[in-house]
Structure prediction request, 237 residues.
Amino acid sequence: MIKVEKLHYEVNRRLTRVNGEYNKNIKSVDIDAYLNHAIDIINENYTAIVERNITIGNHLRILEKKDVAISINRDEEKFTVFNLPQDHYSTLDVSAKGTTTDCGEEDDIFVHNNFSDSIKESLRSPNWNPNFNWRETFYDEFDNSVAIYHDGKLIVTKAYMSYISTLPHVACVTCAKGNYITPEGYTITSNKDFLIDNTAIWRKVCDLALMLIRRDFEENFNADVSLILFTEKAYLQ
Prediction:
């Protein structure tokens, strides 16, 4: 974990080199907003970063959670609903265990991702429809939930998910003058540090934050996000 004060120091140091007046115009809560925007960019581009930047990608893999048991919410006529993990950002895969009223024996169920827009078509398709004999079914996501379809042909007893977790936002309360109130209107009373203890990644976040600040403050400033995300060098020092 990296102290959020360190990120602030790095951003302020770079701002001073670019234009000392920026530091007078940007509050600590604003720097956090830019840092958190940068963190969101990392989250949104996770897959591309892992594929195109091996060094950074290897350090980001700490965000991948494997085979986490997810809790059941309710059972419906056609599907069983499970809750997404609180730190879920995007799903890698889903697996399950199930049985039938006739069999009583619990076994692994292979769960496909439903790429079809029509659930009805998937339920009718011999390649997709729930089938305990083939130990297969499919899932869909909605409203922070995962629906694993059974169509009355099997009983889904347990579910597991591999997913990419959200890289949490930061907050430097100790850097603020007075109360720390987020742009959303929440008051925070303690610092929130940066999760990943890796120099290459926190420098990427600072690079992106500086780019966003300069984009907002300099009329003719132009930078390519991909140069920061997908290369080993820092382009905004």
User: Anything to note?
Assistant: The two ends are 22 Å apart (CA to CA). Strands lie at 64-70, 72-75, 79-83, 88-99, 107-113, 136-142, 145-149, 155-165, 180-181, 187-188. Residues 4-61+166-229 form one domain.
